[in-house]
Every structure is written in structure tokens, then in C-alpha cells.
Amino acid sequence: MIYSKSHQFIFCHVPKTGGTSLRQALKPFRPRWEQSLPLKVLRKLPGAEGNSLLYDFTNRPHTTCAKAQKLLRHSYDNLFAFALIREPSEWLLSCYRFFMLGHSRVRGSSRPVRNFEEYLQAMIELGGKKPSQGAMIIDSSGALLVDRIGLFSQIAAFANEVSDRLRLGLPQLEHLNINPSTEHAPESLDREVSQDQLMDFVSKYWGLDLAIWKLVLSSSSAASLRGYRFDSSLIPAVDLEMYDPWGQFVWESIV
Hints:
- There is one protein chain.
- This protein has nine helices and six strands; from the N terminus they run E-E-H-H-H-H-E-H-E-H-E-H-H-H-E.
- The chain has helices at residues 19-26, 37-42, 65-72, 74-77, 88-101, 116-125, 155-166, 195-205, 207-218, and strands at residues 2-4, 9-12, 80-85, 105-106, 148-151, 249-250.
- Helix 8 (195-205) crosses helix 9.
- The chain is globular.
């Protein structure tokens, strides 16, 4: 997450949406004192985690909007909040490849994940703790906490839109944090699940992500999405302030 007090914005980094590239471009606008030595020392004190002046937004890249809102309180209401998302089935496949690249396992489970179908089943068994795009950007009532949502497929245009709105003068984005396993790998290697089966999984278990995706596609580029409320049945049963999209993964290694 990148929080800029001087330029009054906050960027929520939803994983596997191209957010590393945008976060890197936004880093110069974070508070200069955020990475200072005194703050690094003070962060070790009891209670520092709940202090907005001490919280390390930059090095907590997947902090949720719900957590940021709690930290910043009324100041959050005056920020331009934005995020990136990806088409849900494409996003799930990207998460799976990232999981396999890291030789990962699911915390507390001895069951191996050997293919995409087993990955989906393992995520479904996690319930509300499973990786989700939507859980990053809503509050406990199901209301969006961001003003604008960009699409992974249109990241350069979205970065330009944000840059113009906030007068940032952002350079052309570099494509960072590329998963080498996705560069030339045919999708057939991963798709033990048919497209119809995958969309059924998305509808049943990632309904919030799908609803957000459809909302973004149907919304005007000038419209603010903040406050749009989704059906309560779509809200994951998890503490959104403490939610970590990778929290149930044990990373053995990242190549």
C-alpha cells in the first residue's frame, strides 16, 4: 500500500494485478519520514501497529483498505483511494502459478497441491481466509472503500488517469514482478479445469470478485465507486482489518 499525505491519496495493492509496477511508481510520494531510522525503532514498541504515524504502509504492501481506514480514521475520507483488479478466472490462474512457483503449501494442511483443480479446492476449503481481490477493498458492511478501480488489462491507461487527476507526472510504468512461469507457458498446462467449471467456481466461491469486476466494466470512468454496497452474502467471513491474502500460504521459496 502507498499512502501519500502530501498528495492525499492511498493505493491499495491487490496481489497479482500489476500493482507492484504502480506501487513502485508511487513510492516517491509517500511521506519522507515513513522509512526513517527513528520510526523503524519506534515500530518495535508495544502498540505501534495501531498508530497511523508509525505504521509502515510501504512495506505492508497488501494492507487492506479496512485496515487503512481504521488507522487513518476521518483522514481516510479525504483521500483519493484506488486499486487495480483482474478478471477473476484469470486472477485465480495467476495466483495458482505464483503458488506453484514458490513451492508453497497451505498452512495447516498436509494435502499436496499438484494442479490447478487441487489448488482451487484447497482455496475453497479455506473459506473466508482464501485469497480474494474484493476482501482488500471493502468494509465489513460490503461497501467499497475505493473511489476508482483500474483493470490489469488497462494498467497503463489507469496509471495515466491517476497521474493526471493527482498531478503526479508519473513515468511510463515498468512491468515488474513478472512470474517467469507465465511468460510462455500454454494455458493448457494449467487448465485441468474447463472454462465452464472455472466460471462455476468463480460464481459460487469468488462471487464478490465477480460482482466487482462487472461493476467496474459497467461504470463510467468519471464515477466514484466509493460506498457502493454489495449483497451481504458476498462478504467473506473474516476480519477484513487483519485479512492477509497470502496469510494461509507457507512459502518454501520464491525463485
